[in-house]
Amino acid sequence: MKPELENIPLVKNEEKKRFEIELNSHFAFIDYKETSQQISLIHTEAEPELAGTGAAAAVVEKSLIYIEESGKKLLPFCPYVFAYIKKNPEWKRIVDQRFEGYDKL
């Protein structure tokens, strides 16, 4: 994560069912679904104004930290999140081993 994004807080917007960060009045977010034991990350998006800022990667990393701290397991349905974990395999530790694509991470 770029150093300038480290102190931006992650917001769990339960009304919109998304994890989000705000940068210069623009949002990067990940839609999620949650059960008592798992959090599914469905879709990552950053507003066009945030292109090239690293905001999408930052919201992914912050969300993974949140999921790990919650003690829940991750289901990375979002292709961006899946690719992020492939590039950063240390995060495989929080992926539910029953996830269909687990062996491809």
Automatic annotation (TrEMBL):
It comes from the Bacteria. Residues 11-96 form the N-acetyltransferase domain. SUPFAM superfamilies: Acyl-CoA N-acyltransferases (Nat). This is N-acetyltransferase domain-containing protein. It comes from Chryseobacterium indoltheticum. The lineage of its organism: Bacteria, Pseudomonadati, Bacteroidota, Flavobacteriia, Flavobacteriales.
